[in-house]
Amino acid sequence: MKKTLILSAFLSGLFFIGATPPKKSATKKAAQKPNIVLIMADDMGYSDLGCYGSEIPTPNLDKLASQGVRFTQFYNTARCCPTRASLMTGLFQHQAGIGHMTKEPSNRIDYDYGVYGYRGEINRNCVTLAEVLKSAGYHTYMAGKWHLGSGTPDLRPRQRGFDRYYGLLAGASSYLDPIQPRGIWQDNEPVDKVSQPFYTTDAFTDHAITFLSEQKDQQPFFLYLAFTSPHWPLHALQEDIDRFRGKYRQGWDALLEQRFRKQIKEGIVPAQWKLSARPDIYPAWAEQDTAKQREMDYRMAVYVAQIYRMDQNIGKLVDYLKKANKLDNTLLIFLSDNGACQEGGVLGGGSLADINDPAKGGAISYGGVWANASNTPFKGFKHVSYEGGIATPLIIHYPAGMAGQKGRITTTPGYLIDIMPTFLEVSGATYPMEAKGQKIHPFEGKSLLPVLTKGTRQPHEYMYWEHENHRAIRFGNWKAVGVIGAPWELYNLETDRTEQHNRATEQPDLVKKLDQQWTSWANTHHVFPKGSMKTDFTKEWNFLKTAD
Questions:
Q1: What residues does the Sulfatase N-terminal domain cover (predicted)?
Q2: Distance separating the N- and C-terminal Cα atoms of the chain
Q3: pTM value > 0.90
């Protein structure tokens, strides 16, 4: 990194000196401050929106993209709750205490490893977007999936800066009948039973709009709408499933090629890249008998229906903002928390009877074969640091602050730690050095606003990732990726972002440099030590393979 981060002896070495001091953006009058809406999809692949190459009808997100900016090189952390930890705090997830997963009431695994970076819940050495924006006069609302720890009351949404909350404190749940301990919470109270008919995607949006409509003053607001769609279990409304059933009988191989061609035509990917190959362990569509093809078409139809319903709800929210005359002065950002999800098995998890059963949870899924197509053109999935695990669609719509960039597709790289400084800049909020008597880690991200006003910005010199021992570092167009303890792979992302041609043996000096740089970052950002589980993720991987 450009600045040397020196571990302070202060507070057992948890904080850095020599880093950029906390920043204060230019002061803005309350009337000039934009509203901020942050929308996150869950386990949605890179190519699953129409504006990123999909055949799925997503007209509302496509319209936001056509009137905003699409990022083709924006990144997450490859997993649900680490992404949320980084997104909400502007820090790397290990700094916020969620280097792996969160502790939940029904987890089979205890994710508190007894060390700073792996406590299984968000810590107090960070501030959330809601806490920072509240200090700048914003009303703060959240609807949807929290997934930053639910066991400690002091760390729940209302206690971490949100005025109102409706959603799931834990991770996945039934879309149709969520029950405790993975049920709905309203503000600080659990909801014992939801009123039927019920669908989480609709309920989250309806409550978000209610929060906005109940606001009586003209102060700006921050809304975080965190859908669980299209995360498993496969639960969708029948009318939406009927719309798509039978449309995927061409199979995953043909779908991948179809999406790749559209991405090239739309300017999402360059024609020079080679489409990533289907993993060897994944069968071809043509090898499936008729009954299996019908089943797999149905699984994909339910998955697509989940995305379609999410897009319809985003349209509902945008319509509300437009009618309230607030859309033009709203900074709206949409992204996904990780790449498409292969959990549950190659051909999907759970039985056909489990699909759309409100009482059935777990990894009732569409399968790795479809997830591979969802991540077109990349290789890899959720969990790993190949592009298929960490690349996300990112749409920014901000009519009042987009000088000449409307409809632009940008290749400017960025990642989650850039959201906090973006919100600081537009809101005029001050990022604190301390909060509630605790020292706060300085943020290291860079605002995305210059991309909206100038078309570009100063890039990060290095970008870093780690999850479950899957690591990566990006330096310019070079990316080193691999598993801790194994040799690095090296790819030129300008010519080969689908990571087909490993250049490590050709560039040993560069690999050595990137290894040293990544190790320095890991040692100063609480990636190490890993604590009681150390480097063994076998238990979780075995659970994911057999989850039903």
A1: 34-428
A2: 43
A3: yes
